[in-house]
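User: Fold this; tokens only.

Assistant: Input:
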Amino acid sequence: MSAPVRIAAFVAVAAALALGGTFMFMGGKQNSVSASPVIIKHHRFGPGVKTGTAAKPATRPGPTPAVHTARKKPTAEVAALAAGLPVPIARALGRSRVVVVELSNPTSELDAIAFAEARAGAALAGVAFVPLNVLSQADVGALTEQFGQALPDPGLFIYTRPAKLALRIDGFVDKETVAQAAHNVGAGLSSVATG
């Protein structure tokens, strides 16, 4: 072999040994260091990946004894129920001093407009609003017994605490009239009327 070939072979062997030594050094070091395991945790929203040791599951406290406490009804609600008003009106009187009640038939277009106007008028006046379906005995049965007659359809009642019918308007009422009527009743300017 000629001298240049021997030098090239020597350089190639030296490079191979150096490269092999580097790989052994790196591989040996990697094996000597313990890597943290990767834990894949699955839950109902999809897989999640966490590194490091597994977290301990959260412990939940033991069951607490069930304490059944009835909702304490406001005095105004109790008084309205005692007076025979339907539950939705009584609950509204428990929350608000003045309550606008709209009687309507959900299958009638005119009643649907009257319902929307009454609700908007109650909102303008800042008072509670209760819709009652004249086709539902559960909704209007108690009122029918009180009045002893058929209820207006549509119709508007405004109640004040404890269970006083302050204003009754039979027929359609626009939101401005509802708001003004509720305001007047709240200010004590109106008594029972039929229109």
